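Final report, Chapter 2: Outcomes

The project's central promise was a pipeline that accepts a single protein chain and returns its three-dimensional structure in a standardized token representation, suitable for archiving and comparison. That pipeline is now operational. To close this chapter, we reproduce one record exactly as it appears in the project archive, with the input sequence first and the structure output second.
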Amino acid sequence: MTVALADDHVVVRQGLRLLLESDPEFDVVGEAANGIEALELVKRRKPKVLLVDLMMPGMDGLETTRRVSRLKLGTRVVILTMWGDEAFVLDALASGADGYVVKESCGAELFQAVRDAVAGRRYLSPLLSEAFTRRYLQKFRTTLLKLSPTLTTRERKVLQLVLKGTSSSDIGARLKISLRSVESDLANLVGRLGLNTRHDIFRRVRPRGRTKKK
């Protein structure tokens, strides 16, 4: 599994490389000291996952995440940062991040975040509160509710099936419409929600996050 690193601290990058490469499953294919370098690295090496710091000179992690998402190269982005403030987490998720891990987390959590990102699941660090996760889910679902009145009856049905994880072909069979019509409705939904793919809808409604038991 190929991974690229973006952090303006050399020591941090070296530590992450050593940690990841201690597991043969991971292959670090490059490092970047800022967002601009990270973007070029992603274009050149097309890693499965980009681990990126939130605060970097030149272009920060949020803008880097947005630009990597727009490249549509299949690279997932996991934010690794010391900042666990709710506002930062929300901004990161809204920018298209597939995971958010605070640097206080253990190595096993970082490994899991990378694996989940590649598998199409969203990962939130266990150090983030369960209450935050609920608020995030509610915010996105509220967006869906506000969008609902503007959708056609068929688009609403398509959205409901997508949220259940139904494939495009099965949606077409259930609604008795062509696959092209399904994909057209999905494209409209994705565009209105400001997302990149249909999978982003499913991942936003079901972010992966765990909290430690007290």
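Archive annotation: The beta strands are 2-6, 27-32, 49-52, 76-81, 99-102, 122-124, 207-209.
This record, like all others produced under the grant, will remain available to the consortium after the project formally closes.
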